[in-house]
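> Could you send the 4-diphosphocytidyl-2-C-methyl-D-erythritol kinase prediction when you get a chance?

Sure thing. Input:
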Amino acid sequence: MNRVEERAPAKINLHLDVIGRRSDGYHRLETIMQSISLYDRLLVAANKNRGDRIKLEVRGKELPADRDNLVWQAASLMMNKFAAVKPGLEIVLDKKIPVAAGLAGGSTDAAAVLRAVNRLFDLGLSRSGLEKLGAELGADVPFCISGGTALARGAGEKITPLSPLLNQPLVLVKPPFSVSTRQIFAEVSGRVDREGASASELVELIEEKVSISWQEGWHNALESFTCRLYPRVCEIKEKLESFDPLHVQMTGSGPTVMAFFDEKRRAEEVKKTWSEEDDEVYALEFVK
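Output:
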């Protein structure tokens, strides 16, 4: 095998609770994550030019192609862990997922590198083995190894796979700015009072119904903090609510807002009629 191609799907947070703070300063989370049909693509090959151990090319968006990129860090991790990877890696990243948008764009790319290297060099790593490596790179990387639907705990790195949800059309709106996750969490001193159901209660519903009832109390505990610092996020939420969706909510620490619809046609209509030209708008679906 000379090279491997991997798709890296974005993720959304269907539900996010902040339940406390750990002694290391990280917040303890309970979040239900879902992969969606917005992908980056990565092509990974053994590096024939041994003088440049990691060669990274980024297409589609302006991102660093060096150690500041999580893709580069994932490649470096695999080279340091496994002798078979010592010759180095050539990676082409075709970037479609918005950057710093609450969609785990960097994490899913890093996970794709781990999967690709595992296949390319026949390392034989299991899903749990890849997740442990991913946890060294970031809290969202373990989920992104397999994706689908999952409950994440801790800082997000403790993953429990859930039954795949039935397909759900949705619209994502990403405004023309990014938010600082560090800044958002700095506003959160500890536990955030829950407004709806707990993640555990929602997990029970998922396992029983394998579908979502939006009346059950899904929410994102970070949303009010992000809206306070970035009012445009709430303006987007209010505009999406005018389209009569099933549910509207921010994902991650923002600034991307998502609206769920009962039909794919409705999601496509919202995308076509969205009037804010600077916003990035996507009509998408869940993926397993």
